[in-house]
Amino acid sequence: xxxxxxxxLQSFLERKEEKSVETYxxxxxxxxxxxxxxxxxxxxxxxxxxxxxxxLDGCLIVEFxxxxxxxxxxxxxxxxFSVDWVRVQICRNLMLLENQLPYFIVTELYNTTKDPMHKExxxxxxxxxxxxxxxxxxxxxxxxxxxxxxxxKHLLH
Length: 157
Description:
Elements: H1 2-15, H2 22-38, H3 47-71, H4 79-82, H5 84-94, H6 103-113, H7 122-133
Helix pairs in contact: 1-3, 2-3, 3-6, 3-7
Organism: Camellia lanceoleosa
Protein name: UPF0481 protein
């Protein structure tokens, strides 16, 4: 999974035409205290490791959701999309409470790379991704599309 996380980080940076993660690390440092308080599980790691975790996991989620909603399941160039069980496993992991990143981290990453013409909030894309993977378990009708100005603690909240 670490290989996929690094690839998706690279994809995230390319979307912004950047080569370095330094900007994101520096801005994440300011959010560390709040992120630790809002993380669904207790995170007992040093600052550098915590920031790396937030960035890698956040970019994986953002890029995975974006690719699922934009490219569909037939992206042969992406190893995650070439085998069905990998996508399903990622979606399952997204729905585990102990894996929950603070929602504001994920939306900040999403918002820094979204096309200004697209007004669609990240939550809508996430819901559509999960419902496409698990149509019976997560039908779109089961979700209430919350106003993103309402505080959402993590993806399962």
